[in-house]
Fold this protein.
Amino acid sequence: MKRKKILRLYSLTCVGWIMAFGLIVVLSQDAASQDRRVKVRISNAGFTITALAIAQGDIDYVAGVGPASVAATLTGLPSRAIWFSSDRVSYWLQSAPQYKTIQELKSKKIAISGGVGGTNHVALSIALEKSAVNPKDYVMVGIPGQQLQVLYSMESGFVEAALLSPPHTFSAARKGFNKLLDVGAMVEMPGGGLTTLIKTIQSRPAEVKRVIHALQLAKDEVRKSKPKTVELIIRLLKMDKETASETYDAFQATLNPTGIPNRAGMDNLVRSLQAQGRFTDRRVALNDVADERLATEVAKELGYKLP
């Protein structure tokens, strides 16, 4: 008996829409060549909400690898990150026009979303350390809400600088705010991916590989389909063409070429949790939070150049 493949993607971010576009193209091309298809349930809601659903078997995969999914794993959910959509966050440290260097920002306030001790804070701290300055010399201010509120806090003069991601990066630059530090280029940290239960990996490895294979093909489709993807961004995210094009280019630079989870990225996610005082008594190994084996097999089958 034939069953339709169902892909459920909820609460999509910009990266989610980009990946969804690629999946639509790939799966539509694949549909005509497969007589038998299985039902695959992928949720893109917050992992804090879907952890119970995945544990009970209501969904098969969570479209996300981040602090919430890693925290769920370390708390006891028998799950692992199995695929990365990106291995870098797309963030810039931007400042008011009078500040030209990160040294000039010492003792000044920097706005970050997600709160002090969160992923953004840890990513910025790592980037500052790599820039040979002490993160403790800066005043990090957690701003509730989304990136737009972070931008407003800098525009209003409440803070002297802010950690921003596209499209707000470009909006701030057009208003005269300086781009001081490309945090994403300096810090390996997954910006998205796929998480599933250990029992799914063990009992249905062929299915897991097919899902990863489809996602990789989707990512490749996005890489070579800028006009179509930009058109989708314009329509769904209500951006002008210039901003949509810049956003596409920025996220292109963050995409993980092979999809294989890497140690540096997962270590930085764990570090962000430990910076909040969580799991500080644990030494976390890569295989405690990720299983890269099937993604590696898919990458080899697709002929990707591996490190």
Summary: The mean pLDDT is 84.
